[in-house]
Amino acid sequence: EDKVVQSPLSLVVHEGDTVTLNCSYEVTNFRSLLWYKQEKKAPTFLFMLTSSGIEKKSGRLSSILDKKELFSILNITATQTGDSAVYLCAVATADRGSTLGRLYFGRGTQLTVWP
Amino acid sequence: DTEVTQTPKHLVMGMTNKKSLKCEQHMGHRAMYWYKQKAKKPPELMFVYSYEKLSINESVPSRFSPECPNSSLLNLHLHALQPEDSALYLCASSQGWGGGDTQYFGPGTRLTVL
């Protein structure tokens, strides 16, 4: 049973469009939610969110977390072909009875930006 | 510097071979991780080391044997692998292990088992 669900699984847009990627989760002992961008190899870190309602921004990318409704969105404005990648959402938890944490990944959203 | 390095970048091995994957970080991180990622799937956690001790083993077959010689290095020893073990193997590290710390990933080793 998936603990982290991303939607859509695939998205095709044209340069200049704005996109919104969704991530919902259901975990115990939530610690943080992370967004990663994965092109051909390793995931590269984008954002870590721990508090509800506080938007994080980096250039054309922004993200926000709603801990009450258990979801996060990642917005990309004025998309470019270089934004084409898989965007992974991951939720970090702390194991009950220990301080050890682990990440649960969603399946990712494949974003394709056409020129 | 948030760099995690992994060697080799690519590895092709037969089912009877023994090989090792290496991972290194110099960020002073105390938690290190091995993930396996199949094509078009998210990374799957294999092992977690915290303070150089194995803390999580996600029921990984014994043909995968992790080792953490010191706080900067993490190895994954491979023996008698199967073709279905072909995947991208990712190493990650984080400052702490409590789930509130960002995990930084290495570039991965693309493993092919013939």
Q: Can you offer a commentary on this structure?
A:
The complex is a heterodimer of chains A (115) and B (114). Chain A has 115 residues and is mostly beta strands. Chain A is 0% helix and 59% strand. Chain A has strands spanning 4-7, 10-14, 19-25, 30-38, 43-49, 56-58, 61-66, 71-76, 85-94, 101-105, 109-114. In chain A, the strands form 2 sheets. In chain A, strands 2, 4, 5, 9, 10 and 11 form a 6-stranded mixed beta sheet that branches. A 5-stranded antiparallel beta sheet of chain A has the order 1-3-8-7-6, with no helix packed on it. In chain A, β7 and β8 (71-76) form a beta hairpin. With 114 residues, chain B is mainly beta. In chain B, strands 2, 4, 5, 6, 9, 10 and 11 form a 7-stranded mixed beta sheet that branches. Chain B has a 4-stranded antiparallel beta sheet with strand order 1-3-8-7, with no helix packed on it. The model of chain B has no long low-confidence stretch (mean pLDDT 91). Chains A and B meet through β4, β5, β9 and β10 of A and β5 and β10 of B.
How would you summarize what this structure contains?
The complex is a heterodimer of chains A (115) and B (114). By secondary structure, chain A is mostly beta strands. Chain A has strands at 4-7, 10-14, 19-25, 30-38, 43-49, 56-58, 61-66, 71-76, 85-94, 101-105, 109-114.
Q: Which whole number gives the mean pLDDT of chain A?
A: 91
Structural class of chain B: mainly beta
Structural class of chain A: mainly beta
**What characterizes the major β-sheet of chain A?**
6 strands, mixed
Strand content of chain A: over 45%
Rounded to the nearest angstrom, the distance between the terminal CA atoms of chain A is 37 Å
- Give the N-to-C terminal Cα separation of chain B: 36 Å
Note the total helix count of chain A.
0
Strands of chain A, count:
11
Number of helices of chain B: 0
What pattern of helices and strands is seen along the backbone of chain B?
A: EEEEEEEEEEE
Largest binding interface between chains: A-B, 27 and 26 residues
Taking pLDDT < 50 over at least 5 consecutive residues as the criterion, the unreliable ranges of chain A are: none
Please tell me how large the radius of gyration of chain B is: 13 Å
Q: Report Rg of chain A.
A: 14 Å
Estimate the helix proportion of chain B, in percent: under 10%
| Strand elements of chain B, count | 11
Provide the β-strand percentage band of chain B: over 45%
Indicate the low-confidence ranges of chain B by residue numbers.
Answer: none
